[in-house]
Structure formats: structure tokens, C-alpha cells
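User: Show me sequence and structure for the first protein, then do the same for the second.

Assistant: Starting with the first protein.
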Amino acid sequence: MRLVDRLLGRKREPDPAEIFRALRAQVLATGATRLGRSDSPANDEIVAALMEWNLDGTVVTLVAIADGTVSLYFSSGGGIIGAGVHEGPRKAAEAFLSSAAKHRSLFVSTTAAPLPGEGMTRFHSRTPGGDFASEARTQDLAEGRHALSPLFYAAQDVITAVRTASPSPGAG
């Protein structure tokens, strides 16, 4: 914080990395009861799914929650929150959640949610019974050489829908 800001009682600007971590942590803590669903561990419905990939040191996090929430966060700052109010992103997110459920056998149970390393993509799903994750090389996913490629493509459809539904900066 600059001295002049301290003297004038101004608060520091929020750090984009802190905001990213806080938003991500909030999503990873989303419970089934918040969504009006059973919180029984026997309920294996996916209530939230994330796709995170590392692009040259910046992690991009796509979030789809069963209540219709759709967001996109960037570890370098910025993002799009609340895209699920638009029909296109909401429907694409439903398809992403459905694809995550279809590919559940490729996920392993986890209690951690590390960010993906360089060149990697990590999928994370949350159910009332626990969290599940899988990770693969982004290039393999993008080129259709991995069993999770259809899930990767479904996530890309969400991103396209979010970008289409969101106004460009400066538009208006």
C-alpha cells in the first residue's frame, strides 16, 4: 500500500490472485443442501463441476453448478460470474454436468483440489458423498486422444456460450 493511501485511510486494491482463490474455495465448498438437494452421502448426483487448465502460468477455472450457476475465473484476475442467467451458458453447463456424470468412472476420490500444472487440465466434481477429480495433458484432451476428451469439449462449449452471451468490454 502506498503511503498516501495509508494516510488517507484508503484500503488496498484487492489482489486478483486472492479473489481467484476465494471464489474457487467458495465453489469447492458448495454443498448439496445449498442447492435444495439431498445431502446424503448416498446421493451421488454431481452438484458442481470444474474444469481448470493452466495456460502459460495462468489458471482458467470453469464452474458449473447444478443450480444453474456458470462462471469463468482467471488466476491473473478477472472473469465472468453469473453467466448462467443466460439460456445458452446454462444449457451448455447442464450438458457439461451430464458429461461429468457419464465420465465418473474416470475420476478418483479426492480430498484435495490442487491447481493443474503447466500444460495440464484438471476436472473436479463435487457430490454429497465426496469430491472426485481427474487430470490429463491439455494437448491430449484437445486432440481427442484421451478418454476425457468429450468432457473437455463439453466444457469448451460452455466457454463458447459464456463468451457469446457476455458483452465485450466497452460494448454498450
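Switching to the second protein now.
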Amino acid sequence: MKENSLCAGGDEEALYSNDGDPLLACVCGMVLKGHCEPRFPFFTEDGCFWTNCTTKLLGSSSKEEQQLLGRTRGMCHMSGYESVALVPTNVNGKILGLIQLNDPRVGMFTLEKISQYKAIADKVAIIVQDATNISEAISGIREMITGFEAGVGEERSAHSDGDV
């Protein structure tokens, strides 16, 4: 229940930015918004977050890292996860979501593994985007058929009322 929403303030009291977008909490929100800073060792160039030891990350980060990570809720760590990866799913430069990988063991990720997860995540994003496009196209076809059938019904009524 504690992690049911990524909105800052929770679903009931969600906070919004000046442009009306919900403010997202924690590192998940940073990844989803594309606010990753690759100059930090826990972010990659392509927007992933990863750590092999949340205890060390949260306890011995530099002051600048602590300021950045100070926005975390720490629920992954409090839930016993040491290795955490947040991998955005991108299509055409747009982030659709993220895949989260958690493990209670220390040292479960490498940069190479994160890169492989990123490639998989982007393939998943393409599939999700394609499925959404297909679903929208099917809905459009259904609307056209419904409109066509309604028109045919009206034609039949008009023909039955008039001279044949």
C-alpha cells in the first residue's frame, strides 16, 4: 500500500507542478521524468538508475548525491532490497514507463547487465506502443462499423416508408 502511488503526496493529496503534471516521488519518478544525471555513478547515459547496495548508497554518498537522493522514500531499502535497478522503457525518445528489478542480495548487477535490461525494456516499450496503436485502430474500425450499421438501418426505414 505504501508504494501504490508514485505521486508526491500520494493519490489523495497529489502535488502538481506549475504546468499541471503530477510531481513524482522517489528515484522512480526521476527516471520516469528523465531527470537522471549520468555524472553520478548510479545513473547511466540512457537514463537508468542502479545500485548494488542501497545501504551503502544511502549511507555514504557524497553531499551532492545525498541532496539528489534525499528525495527518495527509501521503501526499497526498508523492504530489504540491496540491489535495485530502474530501467525506463522508451519509444522514439518518449518514456512510457519503467521496469524495476529488486534483489535482497548485494552485487546483483553490472553495467553490462543494465545495458542488456535497457535493450529489453525498449523492445517491450515498442510492443506496448504497437499494441496501443492496434487497439486504437480496432476501436476506430468498430466506431465506423457502428456508424455504417446505423446508417444502413436508417436507409431501410426510409425505403420501407416510401415508394419502392
